[in-house]
C-alpha cells in the first residue's frame, strides 16, 4: 500500500463514552463488516470485556474508505485500553498512530483518564480530532462541552465535530476529517525493517498473534526476524491484516499495521513496545520507548479447596501466555495452605485475573488484601524488597520506602471540599488546582500508591455522586513511617492477616481485625486471645471466651439416628477447619475477614 493512502489513528475516550459503538459504526458505514455479520461491540473480544464494558487488550482493524477526493484510503484503527492499569499499552498504541480522535460524551464532558491520554497523545505529536458523541441524547450539551474541549486543546469550539455513534449521524464526515487532518505515515522503505509491537495476544489455535506497526522497510512471510530487546529470533509463519477478521497477505510495508504469527506460545517472547527487525539485515537502533511491564500490586491467591492447587497452577500458566504483566510464584500460608503470590499492574488487573480464573477454570479463590512493593533499608546497609507483608524483615530498620503516584482528579467544583478531605485522609498532598470551565475543576495530588489501590476510587465516586474521575501515574517513592501489624491467635501470628500500614493507621487496623475475628471464630474449649501487635507491642486485644460444647447433650440419649447425623455434621465441619496452633478456625472466618467491607 502507498503510505500516502494510509491513516493510522486511535480513539481516546473515557469508558462508556462510546468508543466501541463508534468503531462498530465505522465498520458498518464503510462496509468493512457486512450487516449480517455485524454484532455489537465487534472489537471487544473477551467476554469479560463485553460484560464490564471495558477494553482490556488493544486491537487493530483495517477500514477501507473512499473519501471525498474519490481515492480509497486504508484507515487503521488501533483500539486502546481505557483503564489506568493499562497505561503502558495505551502509550504503545499511541506511538503506532499519527492521529487520535478525542471522543467525549456530549452529556458528560471530558474525564480525568481521557485528559491524561490526551496529554500522552500530544507528547507523541499526534494530530487530535476533537469529537463530541451522543448528540442524540436529550441531556447532551454540545455547545458547553465544545467550549470546554476547545479551551483544553486550543482550537475553536466550531472545530469540535458532533456525532452520534448510535445513529451514525456525523460519522461519515468524521471519516473524511481523519483523511484530511491526520498525516500519512512516513518511513524509509529501503532501510532495514523496523516494526513496533503494540499488542500481542495468545490464541489457542494459532499461538501468539503479534500486532505491529511497520516503521521502516518491509516484513514478509517466511522471513526470519529478531526481537531487538531479547535478540530472540523467529520465523514469520503468517503475516496479515485484521479486516477485522484476519486476512493473510504477502507482506507489510512502511506505515502499515497488521499481525504476524511465528508459532511462539508465550506472549513474553513477543513483548509490547519491543522492536522487530530482520535477522538477515538488522536495524541498529531500536524504536523508542520499550519498557518491561512492572507489577505494582501484589496479592496471595489461594484455592478454597486445597485439592484445586494444581488446577490453579495450570490456570495461572495459561493466563500468563496471554498476559506478559502477570507474575506469580508459589507461596504457603499457615492459614490458607498452598497458593501463589501474584503481581498485577493494578487493582483492576487483579480483579480481572481473579474473575477469569474463577470463570474460565471453575476455581473458587481467596485473595489476600492487596499490597504494594516496599523497599526496606536496614541499619547494617542491606536492603529488602517486600512484596508480602509476612516477609517483612526483622532486625534494625533504617528506613521504609513506598511507591507514590501523581493523581489527577476532575470533578464538578461543588465537590472540592469532599475531595480534599478524602485525599488528606489518604496522606495526599495537593500539588495544584485549575478550573477547566466555570464549574469544573482539575486537582493534582501526590498520594502513596498503597492508599489508592484499595478503595480510593469507590470513595471518590460516592463522595462526588459519581461525577469525579481519576487518573494516576507512578512517580517514584517516598520514605514513610510504616509499620507491620501482625494479628495473633493465642500468641501465634496468622500470616494472611499481616499488613504494612502507616503508623497513624496501625491502631485502627488492629482494632478492626481483632473485632472481626472475635465475631468470626467460634468459641473453643479454652479462652483464645486475639491480638494485634507491632513487633512485641500489643496494640489491640479481644477475647474469645471458652465454652464446653457437647452437641450430643442436646439429644437426651434417645434418638440414635439423629445422634449419628449430628456427629457426621460435626465431622464435615471439622474438614473445613484450619489449625492455627491449638485454635480451630473455620475457613469461612478467614474468607470473611479478608473480604473488603
Ligand atoms: P466504550 O466504553 O467507550 O467502548 O463505550 P460503548 O461504545 O460501549 O458505549 C457505552 C454506552 O453508550 C452503550 O450503552 C452505547 O449503546 C451508548 N452509546 C454509544 N454511543 C452512543 C450515542 O451516540 N448515542 C447514545 N444515545 N448512546 C450511545
Ligand atoms: Mg468499549
UniProtKB/TrEMBL annotation:
Its EC number is 3.6.5.n1. GO terms for molecular function: GTP binding; GTPase activity; ribosome binding; translation elongation factor activity. Required for accurate and efficient protein synthesis under certain stress conditions. May act as a fidelity factor of the translation reaction, by catalyzing a one-codon backward translocation of tRNAs on improperly translocated ribosomes. Back-translocation proceeds from a post-translocation (POST) complex to a pre-translocation (PRE) complex, thus giving elongation factor G a second chance to translocate the tRNAs correctly. Binds to ribosomes in a GTP-dependent manner. InterPro entries: EF-4, EFG_III/V, EFG_V-like, EFTu-like_2, G_TR_CS, LepA_C_sf, LepA_CTD, LepA_IV. It is a peripheral membrane protein. Its main location: membrane. The keyword GTP-binding applies. Belongs to the GTP-binding elongation factor family. LepA subfamily. Belongs to the TRAFAC class translation factor GTPase superfamily. Classic translation factor GTPase family. LepA subfamily. GO terms for cellular component: plasma membrane. It is found in: Cell membrane. One of its GO terms (biological process) is positive regulation of translation. Residues 4-186 form the Tr-type G domain. It holds the Pfam family LepA_C. It catalyses: GTP + H2O = GDP + phosphate + H(+). GTP binds at residues 16-21, 133-136. Keywords: Cell membrane, GTP-binding, Hydrolase, Membrane, Nucleotide-binding, Protein biosynthesis. This is Elongation factor 4.
